[in-house]
Amino acid sequence: MRPATAPSVGVAPAGREDLLRACQELEGLFLSMLLREMQATVPRTGLLPLGAAGDIYRTLWAQEVGRAAARSSPLGVSGLAMQALAPDSDPMPTDR
To answer: Does residue 95 surpass a pLDDT of 70?
Structure first.
């Protein structure tokens, strides 16, 4: 009698790309939150406008920098998430 094994959970190629995109978005969100918290520690000098407009600018800047940085996965968060969610697949594409 053979021991019972868990069924293999695979991700279709199209689903893998969607999953990779979601993992990269997660890393981008993490990086943008990290940048916003780092910005909060920097003293305001008056170079950028204060108030709602300045806050919106800083928030959008952090989002875009985080999103752009996540494409290269500098922290490896997206690769770790891919390994956790789809352990049988390569965590990062090789055609970059």
So the answer is: no
The contacts of residue 1 (CB under 8 Å, 6+ apart) are none
Q: What is the pTM of this model?
A: 0.66
**What is the domain count for the chain?**
1
Spell out a b/e string for 5-44, using b for 16 or more CB atoms within 10 Å of the CB, else e: eeeeeebeeeebeebbeebbeebbeebbeebbeeeeeeee
With CA atoms as reference, report the closest residue to 80 among 71, 72, 92.
92
Average pLDDT over residues 5-21: 68
**Domain residue limits at 75:** 49-89
